Amino acid sequence: MNIPFTKMHGLGNSYIFVDLFKFSLAEDTLSDLAQTVSDQNFGIGSDGLILIHPSEVAEVGMRIFNKDGSEGKNCGNGLRCVAKYAYEEELINQKKFAIETKGGNVTAEVHGDRACIDQVTVDMGEPILERSRIPMQGDHASKVVAEPFEIEGEKMSVTAVSMGNPHAVFFVDQMDNAPLYELGPIISNDKRFPEGVNVEFIEKVNDEELHFRVWERGSGVTQACGTGACAAVVAATLNQALNQDKEITVHLAGGDLYITWASDGRVWMRGKAETTIAGTFYWER
Ligand SMILES: N[C@@H](CCC[C@H](N)C(=O)O)C(=O)O
User: Fold this and answer.
1) Ligand 1 atom nearest residue 70's Cα
2) Domain of 261?
3) CB of 218 closer than 6 A to ligand 1?
4) Same-domain pairing of 148 and 250
5) Do 138 and 260 share a domain, yes or no?
6) Could you report the predicted ipTM of this complex, rounded to two decimals?
């Protein structure tokens, strides 16, 4: 099979995008395809696969598959790339439009000329804080804010936020000491999170900046995570480390994202989206 693709990234969080407005893929191939294209030796090399598809409830739809072939429900960096692609490729004519995800619909606005969209703002909607909707085990209606969390003998405290996908946020005094590789994969698969979880370590720099590192469910350490950056700002605000309504600069390994948790409850994300290669992937399953 010859599959036309575009490789794009948001701050180094890279995905192989297949445009299902122009090409079709069978449902039972998607998980294998995600694993194959993501492999840097046998495929193209990426953090996963994103499908851009026609939607009945929005102008365009997005599905995200992680590197291990599991399907996620949302992807902040992917959304900015989908918005750039949809506008540049003339799937959409207006600069502001809705995108369907399995974690809910969002609204994106592209900035720049059709030939070159360099920034995208996304209204990511309201964070979900009830434990059962993260989902996380325990008293279902309660919020998980600075809750004691013991793992591998380490006593930590967790704040859990869903941005359509689950995030467990941990604050550290110094990012260099964050146990990203040691505890990231263990927490991500811990049974307290029945669907797994994206794991973020956050260091507060000042009232307007956070340092951020992530272990993504299904993909491992990545350069950036857009939904994770949103969850981090929500978690920092809930822990009284930040004020609502202020744009916060989140410093990720691959660059900066600008996140606002507005007092009407909605989370806004602004940042870059970039295209690196387009081509054809030859795949024999
Ligand atoms: N990189 C993404 C999130 C991708 C999905 C995630 N690994 C999950 O399984 O929930 C982002 O930018 O938000």
Assistant:
1) 9
2) 131-265
3) yes
4) yes
5) yes
6) 0.99
